[in-house]
Structure prediction request, 119 residues.
Amino acid sequence: MKYFLRSEHFKQRHNAFAVPFLGGAALFMVLLTFPAHAVLAPNVEAGRELASVTEAVGKRFPGQPIQSITRQESGSYDVRVGTCRLKARIITQPTPQGMVGPRQYTVRLTRPKCAAAKQ
Prediction:
């Protein structure tokens, strides 16, 4: 066995295996440093939508507290701000072919329906 380990045949086999293996390992380590994007879990996606709705309503009604946000069917939210009610709709953006990652969307707010202020 000790003669086999010193033979030219073993050296050729060992060197032929080592070069591609080291190159593959280096490539794997480089790819490991890039962020991976995947579809989010439904509960995480709902939290992301809620944060986007809160941000959009906060921009439309600065300085007014949001009283409630209620999720409706099919990506729509009923929002109460002060004496006003409005709907926030989640509009999904088309994704390019082959793109992976979280869903891209925008929030569209309807016109607010405000009740007369009580005096």
Observations:
- The chain has two domains: 2-32, 42-114.
- The beta strands are 66-71, 76-81, 84-92, 105-109, 113-114.
